[in-house]
Amino acid sequence: MIRYHSAAELARQAGGQNISDLVLADQAAQAERPRDELYREMRERFLVMKQSVADGVAENLRSASGLSGGGAWKLQKALDEGRTLCGPMFGSALVKALAVSELNACMGRIVAAPTAGSCGILPAAVLSLMEARDIPEEKAVMSLFTASGIGMVIANNASISGAEGGCQAECGSASAMAAAALVEMCGGTPDMVCHAVAIALKNVLGLVCDPVAGLVEVPCVKRNAAGVSNAFTAAELALAGIESTIPADEVILAMKRVGDAMSGSLKETAEGGLAATPTAVAIRQKIFGQ
Fold first, then answer.
1. What confidence category does residue 132 fall into, taking pLDDT thresholds of 50, 70 and 90?
2. Class of residue 129 by CB neighbours under 10 A (exposed 0-12, middle 13-18, buried 19+)
3. In the chain, what's the furthest Cα-to-Cα distance?
4. Would you tell me how many other CB atoms lie within 10 Å of the CB of residue 86?
5. Helix (H, G, I), strand (E, B) or coil at 179
6. How high does pLDDT run on average in the chain?
7. Could you give phi then psi for residue 43, rounded to 5 degrees?
8. How many helices and strands (H and E) does the chain possess?
9. How confident is the model at residue 182 (pLDDT cuts 50, 70, 90)?
10. Cα–Cα distance for residue pair 53/51, rounded to 1 Å
11. SS3 of residue 271 by DSSP
């Protein structure tokens, strides 16, 4: 039985197989259920992710506050017209990240991965790579087990909650999980997965959670786009053989210490950071009154 307290231990136990194979086998043993059954459940979540992208790219999608919706549609239009800067796969990933997180703000159906506030990052990464490289669905679904295993390690050693650890714990964790999935989908080793996790988390260490008006919209939606960008960066470096000087498990513990040291005003209370700017205060007053 795996305790999910170390990314390095996951990589070691995986040996010559993928981390996803290890996690699926372990979860089946712990739940005393067939592997095929757990795979089908993960595939159902994968299909929800796919549908949330489709539902989120809608021109007239708007949240109740009016702060979110329509961004994914605008970027998709720019992508279709060849007006984006960084190529089709990267543009597609940004569209998907915005689509899912905007749909969440509009009370649509999403998969918390690992949280609702960071729900766009993992599906955007996996679906975009799958489409661009024509990767079989089974491989994409299996990569979610690797992402889940990494997410459990982070949750057990630090946090995946913005209220506890800031946005580094939400979009940061999601970005690390997505980087892990990308590396496995591209044939990277378990050690490469760990390096990608470390790089992704280091890139957002200290990121605060400062939702304007206390809503999971600003800056959360755009941070999902930034999060999938970070995931691709980390995966790209790891797949090239670039290693993180600080091991993933040490980075995760550092993230916990940073989160513990972070002011309460910067941990989902909407009392600091962007939430305390004049524009944000005016938005809060407009929505909720004095």
1. very high
2. buried
3. 60
4. 11
5. helix
6. 98
7. -65, -35
8. 13, 0
9. very high
10. 5
11. coil
